[in-house]
Amino acid sequence: MSEHRKDTILLRGIGVSPGIVIGRAYVVDSRVPDTVKYCHIDESATDEEIKRFEQALNTSKEQLERIKSRLKEEGRGKEHIAIIDAYLMILGDQMLIDETKRLIKEKKMNAEWALKEVLRDIVELFDSMDDRYFKERSQDIEHIVDRIIMNLAGHKRTSITEIDEPSIIVAHELSPTDTAQMSRTKVLAFLTDVGGKTSHTAIMARSLEIPAVVGLEDVTRKVRTGDTVIVDGLTGAVIINPSKSVIDVYKRRSQRYEQYNRMLHHYKDMPAETLDGRRIRLLGNIEIAEEINSLLEHGAEGIGLYRSEFLYLNRKNLPTEEEHLAAYSYVARLMSPKPVVIRTLDLGGDKFIPMEPSAEINPAMGLRAIRFCFKRPDIFKTQLRAILRASKEGNIKIMFPMISGIEEIRRAKAYLEEAKEELKKEGKRFDPNIKVGVMIEVPSAALIADLLAKEVDFFSIGTNDLLQYSLAIDRVNEHVAYLYEPFHPAVLRMIKGVVDSARKYGIEVSVCGEMAGEIEHALIFIGLGIEQLSMNATSLLKVKRLIRSINYSDAREITEKVLEFSTAMEVEGFVASRLKEFYKEEFWSVY
After folding, report:
1. Residues whose CB is less than 8 angstroms from the CB of residue 273 and which lie 6 or more positions away in sequence, other chains included
2. What was the pLDDT predicted at 148?
3. What is the rounded (10 degree) CA torsion for 515, 519, 522, 523?
């Protein structure tokens, strides 16, 4: 190895799963070789080229089937196997197959290039969407195309299963098939060039509690297998070939973090109760059932937000009622008697599932969530029937997203009543008194919360979208990201109005956005009188520690003062100063 390769390199990415790890890198060859080039082929050779493409498809399917069989033998969760099934469905997608064959035949191009052309069109469609979550889903299609191209080229793909000692995985991106095969005993952490907080890699990292940093851009070009690497999943820092003194610093930080975590785990079975007896319920947000074990290990008292979109992604057919039922029943039984709040379909528009694409200028404010469900009542009713049928298995509640007015919630409830009547006639059991709620994430809903409160059993405040819509900013746009201010006085006053309305009409109110898992925001929510917070697993004990360290009266006094401030900066400074008084051990203080 040349001498310059031993120079220390500091990279900054997005920390998506906390923890500090020092270890050896293992670079996974997860990208198609850059040698894929256009080749013109004779017309007489097109049939042979199509056969070569079909063989690569079959090889890819065989590889995934082997992975699926191994996962079953190892007793992996249903969600892991469902991921492989979704990939197998993509491999059978006729649009992908037929369009590639058409380009080979009509344009007389090699299979690799034809496949890349088809991929480019698909990625352009996904990239035109404003929603970051669904932009990141295009990577799943890329993973499948990459696998086919590698098989066309006879390229052997480095596999995570080949790791023989604990390592830090470094990859351009980790596909669901990669993470499904991970062994927590062998994977210390992982780093990727691409990805964001809602990417598959990030979600799996948090569910497996493996430290991870994503969005590093070119980490695969700067690190080699065997290099010593420091990963700080808290700050997003990655240090390649650190000096001994830097390693010593991070060893101490790692020890302090582990001590902090051990301290937090003492709180797991303790009630989330303030010093003066105010009880707060802490629940978890999940997307896939794989995350439930982590929630329970961190003392979650239920699921406050179960995102149901996972069932619709990466497949060419809509999920059946039985598939919905199996997913919801499994989660309900696992959590029973704890509550499970299932949010109905919240996709960004009908372009995201198998049907005629419909381009929109601004999908974030277009045909999404409940609006899409009203356009496609067949899809909506299928889901509602399944949720109702699963309600007999546990304590399930239904939550409707993106409600902006009274007419919408009444219409959604009417569909729910229709589903109940159908099931009664069919003799199928369900909870007739299932609780119904709405997500408050649109300013209009917040402003008429007193009217909505008469229509539902509970509110759940979705702070991510509420901030975006209230402050008129796109969180994905780097030019206005500085305006994304959770402490903005307008947002805090809006949330207070929602809480006051819920209290007036005697319904439950919770917060399920990212703010709920941050102690500085949780402090304000508690002071506002909110008794339920829902967050990712790794934030649960941190927030419980805060709750058990304060008086409710102090939180109320802090919140009353905060509501008098004029700027987000003033709010943030005041809250930070008060937090230090009763939360001195919080880990971020070591930085």
Report:
1. 279, 280, 547, 548
2. 84
3. -140
The two beta strands, 9-12 and 237-240, are antiparallel
Structure tokens, 65: 């089937």
Q: Tell me if 311 sits within 8 A of 274, measured CB to CB.
A: no
Give the residue from 82, 151, 88 showing the smallest Cα distance to 115. Answer: 151
Residue of 306, 305, 442 lying closest to 365 (CA atoms): 442
Residue whose tokens read 């120079």: 7
Measuring CA to CA, which residue among 566, 477, 552 is closest to residue 522? 552
**Alpha-carbon gap, residue 96 to 331, rounded angstroms:** 33
Residue 591 CA to residue 299 CA, distance in Å, equals 27
Cβ contact 398:387 at 8 Å: yes
Distance CA 81, CA 271 (A): 36
Please tell me the distance from the alpha carbon of residue 332 to that of residue 198, in angstroms, as a whole number: 24
CB 515, CB 534: distance < 8 Å: no
d(CA 340, CA 327) in angstroms, rounded, equals 12
The model carries a pTM of 0.69
How many whole angstroms separate alpha carbon 55 and alpha carbon 539?
47
Q: Do domains 3-27+162-262 and 43-152 have the same CATH topology?
A: no
CA distance 149 to 154: 8
**d(Cα 248, Cα 245) in Å, to the nearest integer?**
5
As a whole number of Å, the end-to-end CA separation of the chain is 34
pLDDT at 140: 65
Domain 3-27+162-262, second-level architecture: 3-Layer(bba) Sandwich (3.50)
pLDDT of residue 348: 56
Phi-psi region of 93 (alpha: psi -120 to 50; beta: other; left: phi over 0): beta
14-17: strand order across its sheet? 9-12, 237-240, 228-232, 20-27, 167-171, 187-192, 212-214, 14-17
Two tokens at 18? 């906390």
The confidence score (pLDDT) of residue 162 equals: 66
**Burial environment of residue 409 by CB neighbours within 10 A (0 to 12, 13 to 18, 19 or more):** buried
Q: Are 558 and 527 in contact (CB under 8 A)?
A: yes
Find the catalytic residue in 143, 373, 512, 521.
512
- Of 510, 515, 490, whose CA–CA distance to 440 is shortest? 510
Cα separation of 591 and 588, whole Å?
Answer: 6
Share of the chain above pLDDT 90, in %: 48
Q: What are the structural domain ranges in the chain?
A: 3-27+162-262, 43-152, 272-590
Residue-wise pLDDT for 470-491, tens only, equals 888 765 454 555 566 889 999 9
DSSP 329-386: HHHHHHHTTSEEEEEP---SSGGGSSS-----S-GGGSS-THHHHHH-HHHHHHHHHH
373 is catalytic: no
In contact, 495 and 501? CB cutoff 8 Å: no
- The CATH code of domain 272-590 reads 3.20.20.60
Does residue 512 have an active-site annotation? yes
The hierarchical CATH code for the domain 43-152 is 1.10.274.10
Catalytic position from the list 200, 298, 324, 521: 200
- Beta strand 237-240 with 228-232: parallel, antiparallel or unpaired? antiparallel
Strand partners, 535: 284
